[in-house]
Amino acid sequence: MKNSEREIEAKFYLPHLDDIRKRVLDRGGHLLVQRLFERNLRFDTHDDRLRANHEVLRLRQDNRITLTYKRSHSAEERTEAELEVDDFHTAGSLLQALGYKVIFIYEKYRETFTMDQTKVMLDELPFGCFVEIEGPSLVEVEQAAISLGLEWEDRIKSSYLDLFYNLRQHLNLPFTDATFDSFASCSTIKPTDLGLDDFRRIH
């Protein structure tokens, strides 16, 4: 189990990940975890209390299975507690037996690098590509972002759930989960479809 700890990270939207991957390697970054497929289930109470309180309860399956609780203190800082479990379906059934419900299922591919004192995660979701930078302080996260040519002002303060809700409303999507199968027939998605302003590309 990972004890409760402070997590500091910032997230950015990019049209693709090729340039940022090269930037990470050029700046001495090292591959920590190869590209993995993730399946994520986000849970909440029936009155959506967790989301209202800026809390997240998530069950994730990639090369292991983790149950994670997060509570946000700001867009970039949160408290996180994580527990590794043995069985994805049993853990989900246990949460539902305790009164929680699945409110969102989303899939992604993630590739993780280390760079100086930070981790750089390259995420491919069905509705776009994102970079998450995690570090021991906000200053180091910002410095890492700037060194990679990212505009700090372009960081995204919305969760993947919020971005999907914006997209679903804007495009009137008929499905409620962000899986690759669901998006197979969707046309190209623009940042404005996600509720994002026009962004400055990596320079």
* Assembly state (oligomeric): single chain
Spatial strand order of the main sheet: 1-5-4-3-2-6-7-8
Annotated CATH homologous superfamily: Hypothetical Protein Pfu-838710-001
* Distance separating the two termini: 39 Å
Query: What is the structural class?
Result: alpha+beta
Number of domains: 1
Name of the level-1 CATH class: Mainly Beta
Using only C-alpha atoms, the radius of gyration works out to 17 Å
CATH topology: Hypothetical Protein Pfu-838710-001
User: Strand-residue fraction?
Assistant: 35-45%
Q: Which segments are poorly predicted (pLDDT under 50) over 5 or more consecutive residues?
A: none
What characterizes the major β-sheet? 8 strands, antiparallel, barrel
In one word, what is the shape?
globular
Number of strands: 8
What is the mean predicted local confidence, pLDDT? 94
Helix and strand element order: EHEHEEEHEEEHH
Helix content: 10-25%
CATH-level-2 architecture: Beta Barrel
Alpha plus pi helix count: 5
Short description:
With 203 residues, the protein is an alpha+beta fold. 22% of the residues lie in helices and 41% in strands.
Please give a structural write-up.
Helices cover 22% and strands 41% of the residues. The protein has one domain (2-194): Hypothetical Protein Pfu-838710-001. The longest helix has 12 residues, at 160-171. The chain has an eight-stranded antiparallel β-barrel with strand order 1-5-4-3-2-6-7-8. With 203 residues, the protein is of the alpha+beta class. The protein has helices at residues 18-26, 49-52, 88-97, 138-147, 160-171; strands spanning 2-14, 30-44, 55-61, 65-72, 77-85, 101-115, 118-125, 128-135.
